[in-house]
Amino acid sequence: MSGGSVVSMEKGRAPEALVDIRDLRKGYPVQGGFPGRKGTVRAVDGVSLRIRRGETLGLVGESGCGKSTLGRLVLRLEEPTAGRILFEGQDISSLEGDALQAYRRRVQIIFQDPYSSLNPRMSAGSIIGEPLAVHGTPAADIPGEVKRLAETVGLSREQTTRYPHEFSGGQRQRIGIARALALRPDLIVADEPVSALDVSIQAQILNLLKDLQERFGLSYLFITHDFGVVRFMSDRIAVMYLGRIVELVGNADLDRHPLHPYTEALLSAVPDPDPSRRQARIVLPGDPPSAVDPPSGCVFHPRCPRRMEICSRDVPALVDRENGHPTACHLYGLVGGDPSL
Amino acid sequence: MNPAEENILQVEGLATHFETARGTVRAVDGVDLSVRTGDTVGIVGESGCGKTVLALSIMRLVPPPGRITAGSILFGGRDLLALPEEEMRRIRGREISMIFQEPMTSLNPVFRVGDQVAEVLEVHERLPRRKALERVVEVFRLVGIPSPESRIRDYPHQLSGGLRQRVMIAMALCLKPRLMLADEPTTALDVTIQAQILDLIGRLKAETGTSVLLVTHDLGVVAEAAQFVAVMYAGIVVEYGTVADVFATPCHPYTAGLLASVPRARGTDGAEGRLPAIAGTVPSLDALPMGCRFSGRCPEVMEICRREEPAVTALAPGRRVRCWKCS
């Protein structure tokens, strides 16, 4: 973990960025409802973010906001339409051959669904060992390594001979985690890794992910729709709406001092099991608009309870509003610090 | 009638078992539960605890090889389990309706949503199609579907998840049922849409006086929407009481563990430390342990827990628990 004041980012002394995402865009062409009408889904629409070494950057938003696409772009499972992703200063879109192989070793993924993301015809051991074989670990070393990985994630050695259907959801997710760890990556993109699990199992997996981070100095890009989960896991949290980052906030401030009205509404809408902490829900009207034809100005303005005249006209920039708290909202004026994220 | 006292639903000793090749799956295994007129009772538990089978049992819609093997379900004074199927069919939809989790799979994709809701009125109230559609427009307006006159002509795929769930609620409400069974009604929805639907269910309940049995895995949803909660584990209710009591001072270690293992969005230290997770997994319903069903995972397990199943203990009027520690 990068330690205490993860939110501070004094100029020139910013912690080293492992990943530096710059004005990233990804559009998908779609056919419109009428013949001949074409459009572009702007899944990621000008995102700049940094992931620091050893931190967990949470990426939270509702379905269709582009958070998974952003994760896939970082993994280079998709090519961006525009913008760049620098990994330790190097543009990943230029990587080919051996260099690309090397990148794939260093960046791994944990999927949401532990049922469909494991090959039913492979034993747990061969699933965990497959990345090792693909990336050239001598065959003789693989069984020992698989045993070590299985133990690391809390599976017994004899369980590695079993097949996915013999495991519960939580245990399957442990297999997926062991597979992601096999190549000792620097960064793991975790895309809704606990959404399919029951709460008591979810807690076990979240704890495991934190233990592994401490033990191996991992960085996580942690993608989820769940505010409770993102708060428990993340040092900093990026809130995404319709392809854009609307707020980037340190963990403590997310609860105490959210700035963007969307963040505020999302937080207030999360039902809290503690009846004494009940608070007024901000119920946003309508559905998120289509990313094919996003609203003018601030994309959130049609649902915003605090919209002003300027909001339908001008796109608010994501600029630092307070020390290290970038927010894209006209409520906080046009002044702001350096948007170095 | 004294609505504060009358139980619209009273379930006693209900057991629903599934005979399979591997053995008997005791999905619901002796459940007592009552819903007072106008109340919302939450059934909360993890997957496989039997909460959905409980709801289906009340509707008498348990799929084979499932069978209700014991108990009684009194609805407005009548025992549903003693009714001929013909009569039960009249009760479904008209007096007890159900909202399912997945609005996409519960609506027929090849029929217009207006027609699907109208069919309910045609069947149960023998209304002609045109009259029925007029009523549908009214109900759509009631559940907050914008421009209902044109929306009734849409097919399910043309609606967002939130609107589809509103259509399901409209279908469940159009006959003004006395009891609504809502099985994970907001689980497939985004949190801002979930907030809209929870608001809607609360508002409609206040307006129509319908009682609600809310089945969910989400403790937060129960805390916000229900007055009473039944916590289910491995086919039985392990704790029951008002939401305020149960969530503030849980007695059963399972309830306490469940509450503690939810990461909170607000008011906690955020990323500090670890979550107090419940060890292990839910036991298979065809191979339940001896004694207390939770004993294998319980942090406070005692010797007796592994030997004998605890009986229901009344801690206070309307507050029940099944745990040796609390009795």
How would you summarize what this structure contains?
The complex is a heterodimer of chains A (341) and B (327). With 341 residues, chain A is α/β, with parallel strands linked by helices. Chain A is built from 9 helices and 12 strands.
Structure in words:
The complex is a heterodimer of chains A (341) and B (327). Chain A has 341 residues and is α/β, with parallel strands linked by helices. Chain A has nine helices and twelve strands. In chain A, the strands form three sheets. In chain A, strands 6-7-8-3-9-10 form a six-stranded mixed beta sheet, with helices on both faces. A four-stranded antiparallel beta sheet of chain A has the order 2-1-4-5. In chain A, a hairpin with a 2-residue loop joins β9 (236-241) and β10. By secondary structure, chain B is α/β, with parallel strands linked by helices. Chain B has a domain at 3-95 and 177-252: Rossmann fold, CATH 3.40.50.300. Chain B is 31% helix and 24% strand. An eight-stranded mixed beta sheet of chain B has the order 6-7-8-3-9-10-12-11, with helices on both faces. In chain B, strands 2-1-4-5 form a four-stranded antiparallel beta sheet. In chain B, a hairpin with a 2-residue loop joins β9 and β10 (236-242). In chain B, α4 (113-125) crosses α5 (129-142) and α7 runs parallel beside α8 (191-208). The longest helix of chain B is centred in the middle third of the chain and has 18 residues, at 191-208. Chain B is globular. The two termini of chain B are 36 Å apart. The mean pLDDT of chain B is 89. Classes of the chains: A alpha/beta (341), B alpha/beta (327). The interface between A and B is large, with 52 and 48 residues.
